[in-house]
Design a protein that fits this description.
By secondary structure, this protein is of the alpha+beta class. Among the domains are: 70 residues, Immunoglobulin-like (Sandwich); 81 residues, Immunoglobulin-like, CATH 2.60.40.1080. Helices cover 37% and strands 38% of the residues. It has four helices and 17 strands. The strands form five sheets. Strands 1-3-6-5 form a four-stranded antiparallel β-sheet, with no helix packed on it. Strands 2-8-7-4 form a four-stranded mixed β-sheet, with no helix packed on it. A hairpin with a 2-residue loop joins strand 5 and strand 6. The longest helix has 33 residues. The N and C termini lie far apart (139 Å). About 6% of the residues have low confidence.
């Protein structure tokens, strides 16, 4: 092989090597750019709420924000805080590539689990009912003292039936208690009742403490709950217990 041929072959190899050397970094950069990702492209938050954005596949990230948000940067992570109602754009810059996240900032909300309640009021206490029941039982025992055993068995069955009714009434009372508890929700999340300011427009009708309602008398009242500058109300209507009305009518009939 002549020297001239060797020179031509060497020149071809040199050109090929230079082309490969120039192409490899470009391919590496394209591969790296394709693997760079932003954790969120769209988000929705409330005023005062925070979200965290992050970039994967990059060693160094530059962050920028425009709109109604504030940002706190820590390396590849960016904490975004909603400042005012509106829209904002957060941009992550990796070399010449830009990744954006569009954020909608909403006004905070506060609500109660109930906007209206209907409760019943019974002026007689449980102790009064128990005393009356004991007196009635003593009278029945005196009147039925001379009756036969069959009648006694019938009375026992009736007593058992009454006890079952009492148990059902107790269950209903427990259900009423559950319905008389208010819960506040801020931005869709439950708030501890002790952190909410509670008030009643008429304490002679119903009182409230940490969301629990206590019926005091017949009438109407409005329960107001306040939290972080927001307020929500529940309108309460208290009526006389129907069972109590029947109880008083029975007493009038006996007299």
């Amino acid at each position: 092989m002549s020297k001239r041929t060797l020179k031509k072959l060497g020149a071809v190899v040199l050109v090929w090597a230079m082309a490969v050397a120039l192409t490899l970094p470009s391919l590496a950069f394209q591969t790296q750019a394709a693997s760079v990702r932003l954790s969120k492209r769209h988000a929705s938050i409330y005023v005062g709420e925070r979200i965290t954005l992050s970039v994967s596949g990059a060693k160094k990230v530059q962050w920028k924000a425009s709109g109604k948000v504030g940002i706190s940067v820590s390396g590849k992570r960016c904490i975004v805080t909603g400042k005012k109602v509106g829209k904002a754009t957060v941009t992550a810059i990796v070399k010449s590539k830009k990744l954006t996240c569009t954020i909608v900032i909403k006004a905070p909300t506060f609500r109660l689990n109930e906007t209206s309640l209907e409760l019943s009021y019974s002026p007689l206490s449980d102790e009064d009912y128990e005393v009356d029941e004991l007196e009635d039982e003593e009278e029945l025992e005196e009147d039925d003292f001379d009756e036969d055993d069959d009648d006694d068995e019938d009375e026992d069955d009736e007593d058992d039936f009454d006890e079952d009714d009492d148990d059902e009434d107790d269950d209903e009372d427990e259900d009423d208690d559950e319905e008389s508890i208010l819960t506040g929700y801020y931005n869709g999340k439950a708030v501890s009742p002790s952190q909410i300011s509670w008030s009643s427009s008429d304490a002679s009708v119903v009182t409230v403490k940490n969301g629990k309602l206590t019926v005091m008398g017949v009438g109407k009242a409005t329960i107001t709950a306040k939290y972080k500058g927001k307020k929500a109300i529940c309108k309460v209507t208290v009526t006389r217990d129907d069972d109590e009305n029947e109880y008083e009518q029975d007493e009038d009939s006996e007299e």
